[in-house]
Amino acid sequence: MLRRLYDWTMSLAGRKSAEVWLAVIAFIESSVFLVPADVLFLPMALARPERAWRYAAVATIFSVLGGIAGWFLGYYAFETVARPVLEFYGKYEAFESLRTSVDYQTVLLLLVTSGFAHLPPIKIVTILSGVAHVDIWLFIAAAIVTRGGRFFLLAWLLRSYGEPIRHFIEKRLGQIALAGAAVLILAYIAYRFLAH
After folding, report:
1. pTM of the entire structure?
2. Which residues contact 62 (CB under 8 A, 6 or more apart)?
C-alpha cells in the first residue's frame, strides 16, 4: 500500500495541477497522510527551478495549516477522529508510548525533529501537541520555522546544484535534517542551562 501511495504521489508532479496537489499533500501529510510532501516537491522544483522558492512557500504554508488541523484533532477530537487515523496507519502504539513518556518541553523538541527530519512522523507530533495542550501560537511558530526551514533548504539546494543533488537529498535528507535538528536542540538545552 505504501509503495502505491508513493508512486501515485510521484505521478502528480508532472500534472498541470501539480502546485495544487503540492498544497493538498503538504496539508494532509501534517495531520493524516503517510507520504511526505517532499516526494512531490523534489521533482517539481527540479523540473521548474525558477519556481522552487514559490513551491517551498506553498509547501510551508499548507504544511503549517495541516499541522494546525492535526493540533485541533489532538486537542478537540482525539478519540473520535485522531485515534482511528493513527490506528489505520498502525501508528497508535507509537503515539501512546510517546504520549505516556514525554512532557511539554519534550513535545516542543519533537516538533523540531519531526518538522526538520520527520522523526517521529509529523502527523504524530501535531496530534500529540494538541493532546498535550501545547500553546497554539508556540506550535504555529515552531511549525513555520521547522517546516519552512526544511522546504526552503531543499529549494536552495535544488536551485544551487540541480539534478546531481537530487539523489544525495533522497538518500541523505533525513540525516542532514536530523543533524540540523540536533544543533537546534543543543542550542535550546544550552540556553536553558545558561538561563538557570
Report:
1. 0.75
2. 22, 23, 24, 26, 27
